[in-house]
From TrEMBL:
The encoding gene: gst-mu1
Catalytic activity: RX + glutathione = an S-substituted glutathione + a halide anion + H(+)
GST C-terminal domain: residues covered: 65-197
Matching SUPFAM superfamilies: GST C-terminal domain-like (SSF47616), Thioredoxin-like (SSF52833)
Protein name, as recorded: glutathione transferase
Quaternary structure note: Homodimer.
Length: 213
């Protein structure tokens, strides 16, 4: 596959004109021009979860029965909820005070006040309980939701490993995913991006910060 990356210029307004111009012209004829997008022959998609579901079907990384499909979609949306909460923290200008729980609602520009450590720990416990002793989120079958889960869980573990102290099956999941032969091989290539996690305007996980590993 060919990867296309767009640059956000580190200026006061974080210039995104490279993508904005292409989005306005929409030469790719995307139904809903947005990032990320996927062009696979005649298939042209945007929206992350639509892309992941499509790839799941194409490469047999999805459930086959109605209950399996429902479980995939359930985990997908639960991971999405956790990602949304984590991104609110990562992109908040009050990042340090928010994660410490010392920021008022007024000071934090509408972002939920404090308690992020406890909140994330609770959400992770729910995901941990669902995974249980299973190898993957759909028992023995690797699916696209395992990719979604791994990416977020890894980023959160790097941010603060203490929230994983009571959910060791999730840290085992991270290790198990990274040990998959194709994943392990990919992580050794120049194409693998371990850092940054987020765009340049993020308060945490941007290329403006020192890589923590």
């Amino acid at each position: 596959f060919e990867e296309r990356r767009y640059t956000t210029i580190a200026a006061s307004d974080f210039d995104k004109s490279e993508w904005a111009l292409e989005k306005a012209n929409n030469k790719l004829n995307l139904a809903f021009p947005n990032l990320p997008y996927l062009v696979d022959g005649s298939v042209k998609l945007s929206q992350s979860h639509a892309i992941m579901r499509y790839l799941g079907r194409k490469f047999n990384l999805i459930g086959t029965t109605e209950i399996e499909l429902a479980h995939c979609e359930l985990v997908e949306q639960q991971i999405a909820d956790l990602r949304t909460a984590f991104m609110k923290l990562c992109y908040s200008p009050s990042f340090e005070r928010l994660q410490e729980g010392t920021c008022s609602k007024a000071d934090c520009l509408g972002v939920l006040n404090g308690g992020f450590i406890d909140r994330f720990a609770h959400m992770l416990q729910e995901i941990s309980a669902f995974l249980g002793e299973r190898k993957w989120f759909l028992n023995e079958k690797l699916t696209y939701v395992d990719f979604l889960a791994y990416e977020l869980l890894f980023q959160m573990y790097v941010w603060n490993s203490s929230v994983f102290k009571n959910v060791t099956n999730l840290t085992d999941f991270i290790t198990r995913f990274e040990a998959l032969p194709q994943i392990s091989a990919y992580m050794k290539t120049d194409s693998y991006i371990k850092w940054p996690f987020n765009n340049i305007m993020a308060s945490y996980g941007s290329r403006n910060q020192v890589c923590p590993f």
